[in-house]
Amino acid sequence: MRTPMDVQQVLAAIAEPQRYRIVTLLAERPHTVGEVASALSALQPQTTKHLQTLESAGVITVHRLGRRRLAALERDTLRLLAEQLSELGVPRADDAALGDYARAVRAETERAAASGSAVRSISLHRRLTATPEAAWAAWTEPDQARRWWAPNHFTVTEFDLPPAPGATVAVGLREGDGTEYASTGRMLAAEPARLLEFELAPLGPDGAPLFTAVYRAEFATVEPAGSGTAGVGQPGPADVGARGTDLLLTIRVDDAVAEAAPVLAGLELGWANLLDNLAAQLRKGDTAVMEIEQWWPKLSPATREWLADNNGDAVTPEIVAEIERAAGAVDPTAWWFGESDASGFFFSDAGVDWIEAAANGETP
Questions:
Q1: Burial (0-12, 13-18, 19+ Cβ within 10 Å), 59
Q2: Burial, 272: exposed, middle or buried (Cβ in 10 Å; 0-12, 13-18, 19+)?
Q3: Angle CA 302–320–129, to nearest 5
Q4: From the centroid of its chain, how far is CA 131?
Q5: How much is the average pLDDT of 173-200?
Q6: 7-88 maps to which CATH number?
Q7: In this predicted structure, what is the pLDDT of residue 235?
Q8: DSSP of 63-96, one letter per residue?
Q9: Fold agreement between 7-88 and 118-282
Q10: What is d(CA 78, CA 58) in angstroms, rounded to the nearest whole number?
Q11: pLDDT digit string (tens) for 272-293?
């Protein structure tokens, strides 16, 4: 019985030009060792070594039939390899996001070179299925804000947005490779459940601001359908019977330096992503426990690797924050939740088994 296919061994075996020629030859029909040597114009001992390598990788089988030796292709191995490579070729959401970002960076760089102007103004709107009070809390309470205030594959390391004019604002993000990004500023105006206005400046590697952006978030009540007092636009089906919120976010940048083009380019795309995270977090029904099969693919590759390498250990706060952004608040009643203590939470035995299977490329 053959052992499971080793993808890297198969790829290494067929990558050598002569061995790949053997594979294409055997794709037509089985050949004797002598026929293979003749087709390659090679000596039989060299051909035998190539066949042994291919057979060891499970790509071919050499059948010994009396005095004859016939090499035949193991088509199941190549079919499995094709399936795995085909799976790698399936587009992911991050592919499109990266393409959009790359185009935005080029456009921003060209715009800045052509106009010399650093002024930018962006407006984004979301209809939230939560009251203005709940939406306000999602912005100003650190435990809630950490769950949505980070693009995909980033972790919030610091968050302080006190709703008091003059207060210091600070946000820290960490990328999957450990690179950290800091932003600082101050609160300009705050009216509970109505308005947040603050400055925030992303800092470059030298600690100097790349630019200062003024953020103005306005929260307007959307009354239930049929009340006769609906806000801007008509509530969707999810809004019927409950108050919602129209959120208008305006971002203005006045003083960007030349090196800020990549950050500016990602400003609108990034905040569109963040507001989608916020809307999902506040959406009705999101209190249901999300299955691990649903949130696992949403984690960054680095986080999935950490969970696999440290399977069974306490989950760090940074990892918990990313899981919560993907799955919502970690629910102690979820089957994959084990126990918790001061060091964090642990996956249950079933959760540990699931992660091990996922890390091994199996379908749990």
A1: buried
A2: middle
A3: 110
A4: 29
A5: 93
A6: 1.10.10.10
A7: 40
A8: EEETTEEEEEE-HHHHHHHHHHHHHHTS--HHHH
A9: no
A10: 9
A11: 889 998 998 888 544 445 678 8
Residue 68, token pair as written in the block:
């004859």
CATH code for the part of the protein at 118-282 = 3.30.530.20
Label residue 269 exposed, middle or buried (CB < 10 Å: 0-12, 13-18, 19+): middle
In the chain, the N- to C-terminal Cα span, in Å, equals 24
Q: Which of 153, 152, 192, 185 is nearest to 171 (CA)?
A: 185
Parse the chain into domains and list their residue ranges.
Answer: 7-88, 118-282, 292-359
Contact status, residue 162 vs residue 140, Cβ threshold 8 Å: yes
The per-residue pLDDT for range 20-58, each reduced to its tens digit, is: 999 999 999 999 999 999 999 999 899 999 999 999 999
Task: Please say whether the beta carbons of 172 and 156 come within 8 A.
Answer: yes
Q: Alpha-carbon dihedral of residues 113, 114, 115, 118, nearest 10 degrees?
A: -30
